[in-house]
């Protein structure tokens, strides 16, 4: 009697060694995939979507690459997930986290092959991660008290983040820009207030930070193009035909004249509404929904600037910036808070007309206008800038910084190595392996830059043996150098998140000894 | 017999299209069933204990779950075999009843089946085996009762509870911070427990998770957490001494259920209708305001106009709050759920000391905290973790820990873990076996051997020599006549589970043995499997 099938037809099960092997292979494949994008000399990837139009993305951002992959291997999915979370939480280090997790698993594979139980490896990794974090904590630099120094720290962090991206040519320019934008937020992490507008044309250098707010919309015809001391009403209301909301109401008439009458009444109603809006004493009206020709004309007659179809985000931001509330009813003009700004004008960027609000009441918001040769460049620039902004906003809250260029990894590796020597039992192998995985990151950075990684890392390790060493890999000159002098800084929060999530992910994959795959859900054949 | 003859000698068919059905009978059926049950148990066997491994499950839509929880593994497995489905049911019922020990019960059942197979080979009738198992399980349960220990705790001294929860959590991936999670679970249960009646309503504990942060950031909130934000971006983000109106009616014009039509045929009607509409919104908001509400929580959506009116009258509001959450909020704040605006009265408002909105990470994620409620008997465990799978697994682990704490409040008896209870039972059953005359004796002895398989699996998973370790512990128990010796899974150096603080609940253990026996009995009694053929 053969053992029956327990699972459904297409479901499969992989056990023990095979399961572990398949998850190791999957995870390492993913990590090798993004490995080459690491570091300032990392390469980009072209992603072509399978959807209509085969849209092309060129990027260096780990999270973006991984997000677009179609993966079938469950372990690989775990890695993609951690990179996504890293992106959401701290915004940068999305590649490093995957590479580190991959290296940890690569080392684990060797240990498993030499008959060390996965649980022992996990407990060793845990100890090592803890030790690494403590080592970093001991060496952090915190310049919160000194605003000037703090600012220069931030600029350095921004430059380090940007140097691996497409913006590296103009990294000083963009770093200044990002830091200025972050300082305007005054400690809040709400990046919504920073608006990034992409306009093809010009070069990346022409990008600029604008203190006001830019709305990518057009001003209605026949309305003033420039308003000083604007009073703005931000609204979310229907300015097409106001439908009756009482359920079941419908228009039923028996003659043409009545149709005309009702039409008249409708118009009257709209006029009424417009008058009510005008009664607020405004000279600018921004609506989320459409504004039909008729009310637009009425606004034009009254000399009010009417902007239609600003999307939800635009409205919310405008409300935030100008300090006005988003209104939907207009019966009591005296109590609605209006937004204010010094000047509204139409400006031209390239060939497009945009509306620019300057001198706004609340200084929090600002806009960054990106210029660049093509959409691909702009998209990538936006992603890079977003990374930089995320890191900066997190650093403003947690002002501890570290040196970059593989320095933190070497510091951790040294401490972890020492721990391994002190730990009795099999765990010490795992701890040693952890330190090897850490060293793999500077190795990869050097490899990607086409340098002799073995030589450089060995040199680095030797230098780190002395206390208080600031050495890291200087990719530009291709040698080991003092990171503090070179101004390569990284945020502590990013490094910590990389370390902890990579360990967590490796642990999770290591614990698995059985993979059960359900039969894929049948889709209707659309072919 | 698929073919029978009626009184006139004409054949008629009992089982239709017989050759298209596969059919197993007699001993073959039992063997096949046992093999299937064992296969399921084998999958779970390696998940048992603190050094147990996890399983990775890929769902039909490609979603990945990594878990150590027996019930979850079995539920997500695409099982086709009937007997395997029974095992899934078994684990699920343990989950519903006790909440913990879902892996153990399946391993136990698998071991019982394996032993039964051996007895079948000896030619013992399946019913006799089943009866023997039944007797043995009774003996085991009684023995558990005898070796169980009461242990005392109260609201101020909940250390023993924490210890027990830690035993449960130590087998999960979250064992890195089992101490803090166990404390959270115990505090949560104590907050909602009714110690007089010895009852805990776990529905009052909400477990919420949000990706990001560290596991260490997991916290217990004495209040409710709602994954929603204020309906209008400019409403205040913090309200102190909130009076909450909990509504299940939308801020929209009413939609009567009867079919009706309002015909507009004159300009006047059009005008009045419009006026009425405006008035309607105004009234709704005014009513909330009149009763003194400072926060409106609504199950449905708001019309843009109503939303602005709320904002305008300085009445913060939250929309699209789910029914379950609404109920929890009502319980916590001592408010009533109001289905119509007309029925709003000041007494029906809920009260909370602090309501605040908090945002996370770089994305636009906000959550609403309702704290310092009038009735603190609703709490939320808020889990943070590196990724989604981690959060899901933590949720399951916390659920297990909560269940264990609840069981302890219901019944204060505990037994010692690490296989100690199983070994003690096995000894007792073995001793009882000799006293039974008749064939059942063999079955009872088989039961004792099956009990041994749990500590054996524990030892195996921990990388110890299973047989050697088990026999050493067993002899130790007999020699000193103390039922506290178990398998030293964590390599601490002692087998005394009292020192290691490894406890399990008595009812959990008893339930495991009873449920496993029942299912095995059921499987043994099947002697004919008829299944439709594949098509």
Automatic annotation (TrEMBL), chain A:
It is found in: Cytoplasm. Gene3D superfamilies: GroEL, GroEL-like equatorial domain, TCP-1-like chaperonin intermediate domain. GO terms for molecular function: ATP binding; ATP hydrolysis activity; ATP-dependent protein folding chaperone; unfolded protein binding. One of its GO terms (cellular component) is chaperonin-containing T-complex. It holds the Pfam family Cpn60_TCP1. Keywords: ATP-binding, Chaperone, Cytoplasm, Nucleotide-binding. Belongs to the TCP-1 chaperonin family. Molecular chaperone; assists the folding of proteins upon ATP hydrolysis. Known to play a role, in vitro, in the folding of actin and tubulin. This is CCT-beta.
From TrEMBL, chain B:
One of its GO terms (molecular function) is unfolded protein binding. GO terms for cellular component: chaperonin-containing T-complex. InterPro entries: Chap_CCT_epsi, Chaperone_TCP-1, Chaperonin_TCP-1_CS, Cpn60/GroEL/TCP-1, GroEL-like_apical_dom_sf, GROEL-like_equatorial_sf, TCP-1-like_intermed_sf, TCP-1_chaperonin. It comes from the Eukaryota. It is found in: Cytoplasm. Pfam families: Cpn60_TCP1 (PF00118). Keywords: ATP-binding, Chaperone, Cytoplasm, Nucleotide-binding. Gene3D superfamilies: GroEL, GroEL-like equatorial domain, TCP-1-like chaperonin intermediate domain. Coiled coil: none annotated. Molecular chaperone; assists the folding of proteins upon ATP hydrolysis. Known to play a role, in vitro, in the folding of actin and tubulin. Heterooligomeric complex of about 850 to 900 kDa that forms two stacked rings, 12 to 16 nm in diameter. Belongs to the TCP-1 chaperonin family. This is T-complex protein 1 subunit epsilon. It comes from Arabis nemorensis.
């Amino acid at each position: 009697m053969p053992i029956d099938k327990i699972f459904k037809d297409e479901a499969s099960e992989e056990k023990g060694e095979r399961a572990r092997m398949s998850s190791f292979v999957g995870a390492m494949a993913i990590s090798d995939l993004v490995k080459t994008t690491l570091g300032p000399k990392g390469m980009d990837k072209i992603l072509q979507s399978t959807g209509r139009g085969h849209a092309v993305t060129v990027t260096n951002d780990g999270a973006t690459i991984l997000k677009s992959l179609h993966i079938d291997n469950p372990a690989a999915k775990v890695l993609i997930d951690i990179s996504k979370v890293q992106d959401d939480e701290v915004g940068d280090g999305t590649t490093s986290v995957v590479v580190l997790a991959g290296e940890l698993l690569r080392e684990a594979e060797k240990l498993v092959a030499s008959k060390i139980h996965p649980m022992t490896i996990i407990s060793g990794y845990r100890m090592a991660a803890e030790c690494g974090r403590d080592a970093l904590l001991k060496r952090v630099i915190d310049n919160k008290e000194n605003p000037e120094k703090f600012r220069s720290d931030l600029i350095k962090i921004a430059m380090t983040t940007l140097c691996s991206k497409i913006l590296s040519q103009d990294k000083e320019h963009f770093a200044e820009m990002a830091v200025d934008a972050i300082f305007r937020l005054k400690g809040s992490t709400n990046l919504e207030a920073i608006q990034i507008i992409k306009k093809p044309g010009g070069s990346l250098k022409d990008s600029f930070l604008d203190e006001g707010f830019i709305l990518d919309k057009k001003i209605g015809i026949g309305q003033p193009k420039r308003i000083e001391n604007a009073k703005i009403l931000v609204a979310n209301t229907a300015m097409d035909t106001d439908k009756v909301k009482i359920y079941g109401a419908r228009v039923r008439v028996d003659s043409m004249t009545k149709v005309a009458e009702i039409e008249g009444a409708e118009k009257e109603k709209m006029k009424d509404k417009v008058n009510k809006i005008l009664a607020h004493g405004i000279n600018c009206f921004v609506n989320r929904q459409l504004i039909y020709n008729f009310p637009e004309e009425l606004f034009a007659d009254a000399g009010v600037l009417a902007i239609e179809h600003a999307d939800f985000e635009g409205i919310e931001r405008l409300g935030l910036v100008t300090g006005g509330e988003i209104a939907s009813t207009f019966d009591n003009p005296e109590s609605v808070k209006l937004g204010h700004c010094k000047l509204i004008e139409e400006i031209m960027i390239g060939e497009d007309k945009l509306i620019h609000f300057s001198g706004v009441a609340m200084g929090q918001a600002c806009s960054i206008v990106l210029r660049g040769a093509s959409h691909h460049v702009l998209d990538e620039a936006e992603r890079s800038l977003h990374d930089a902004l995320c890191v900066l906003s997190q650093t403003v809250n947690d002002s501890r910084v570290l040196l970059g260029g593989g320095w933190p990894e070497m510091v951790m590796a040294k401490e972890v190595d020492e721990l391994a020597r002190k730990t009795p039992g099999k765990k010490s192998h795992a701890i040693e392996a952890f330190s090897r995985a850490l060293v793999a990151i500077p190795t990869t950075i050097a490899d990607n830059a086409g340098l002799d990684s073995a030589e450089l890392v060995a040199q680095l390790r030797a230098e780190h043996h002395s206390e208080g060493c600031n050495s890291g890999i200087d990719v530009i000159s291709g040698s080991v150098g003092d990171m503090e002098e070179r101004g390569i800084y990284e945020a502590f929060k990013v490094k910590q998140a990389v370390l902890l999530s990579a360990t967590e992910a490796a642990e999770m994959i290591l614990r698995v000894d059985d993979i059960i795959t359900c039969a894929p859900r049948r889709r209707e054949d659309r072919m | 017999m698929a073919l029978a003859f009626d009184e006139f000698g004409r054949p008629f068919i009992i089982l239709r299209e017989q050759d298209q059905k596969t059919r197993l009978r007699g001993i073959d059926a039992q063997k096949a069933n046992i093999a299937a049950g064992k296969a399921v148990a084998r999958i779970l066997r390696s998940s048992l204990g603190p050094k147990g491994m996890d399983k990775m499950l890929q769902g039909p839509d490609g979603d990945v779950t990594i878990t150590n929880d027996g019930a979850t593994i079995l539920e997500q497995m695409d099982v086709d075999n009937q007997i395997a489905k029974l095992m899934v049911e078994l684990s699920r019922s343990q989950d519903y009843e006790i909440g913990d020990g879902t892996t153990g019960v399946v391993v136990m059942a698998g071991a019982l089946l394996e032993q039964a197979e051996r007895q079948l080979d000896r030619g013992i009738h399946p019913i006799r085996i089943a009866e023997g198992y039944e007797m043995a399980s009774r003996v085991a349960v009684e023995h558990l009762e005898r070796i169980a220990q009461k242990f005392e705790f109260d609201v101020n001294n909940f250390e023993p509870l924490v210890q027990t929860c830690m035993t449960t959590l130590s087998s999960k991936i979250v064992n890195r911070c089992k101490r803090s999670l166990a404390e959270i679970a115990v505090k949560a249960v104590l907050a909602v427990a009714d110690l007089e009646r010895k009852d805990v309503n776990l529905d009052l504990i909400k477990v919420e998770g949000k990706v990001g942060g560290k596991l260490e950031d997991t916290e217990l909130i004495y209040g409710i957490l709602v994954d929603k934000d204020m309906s209008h971006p400019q409403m205040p983000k913090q309200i102190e001494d909130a009076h909450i109106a909990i509504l299940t009616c939308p801020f929209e014009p009413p939609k009567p259920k009867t079919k009706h039509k309002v015909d507009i045929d004159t300009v006047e009607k059009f005008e009045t209708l419009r006026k009425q509409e405006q008035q309607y919104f105004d009234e709704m908001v005014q009513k909330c305001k009149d009763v003194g509400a400072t926060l409106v929580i609504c199950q449905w959506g708001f019309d843009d106009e109503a939303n602005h009116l709320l904002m305008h009258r300085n009445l913060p509001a939250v929309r699209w709050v789910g029914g379950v959450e609404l109920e929890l909020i009502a319980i916590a704040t001592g408010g009533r759920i109001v289905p119509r605006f007309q029925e709003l009265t000041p007494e029906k408002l809920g009260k909370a000391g602090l309501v605040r909105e908090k945002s996370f990470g770089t994305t636009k994620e906000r959550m609403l905290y309702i704290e310092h409620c009038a009735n603190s008997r609703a709490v939320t465990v808020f889990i943070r973790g590196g990724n989604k799978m981690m959060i899901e697994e933590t949720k399951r682990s916390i659920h297990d820990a909560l269940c264990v704490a609840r069981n302890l409040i219901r019944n204060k008896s505990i037994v010692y873990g690490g296989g100690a209870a199983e070994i003690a039972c096995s000894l007792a059953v073995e001793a009882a076996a000799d006293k039974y005359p008749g064939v059942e004796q063999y079955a009872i002895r088989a039961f004792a051997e099956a009990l041994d398989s749990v500590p054996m699996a524990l030892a195996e998973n921990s990388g110890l020599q299973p047989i050697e370790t088990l026999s050493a512990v067993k002899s130790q128990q007999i020699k000193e006549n103390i039922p506290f010796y178990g398998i030293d899974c964590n390599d601490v150096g002692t087998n005394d589970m009292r020192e290691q603080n490894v406890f399990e609940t008595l009812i959990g253990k008893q339930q495991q043995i009873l449920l496993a026996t029942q299912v095995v009995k059921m499987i043994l009694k099947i002697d004919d499997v008829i299944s439709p053929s594949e098509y």
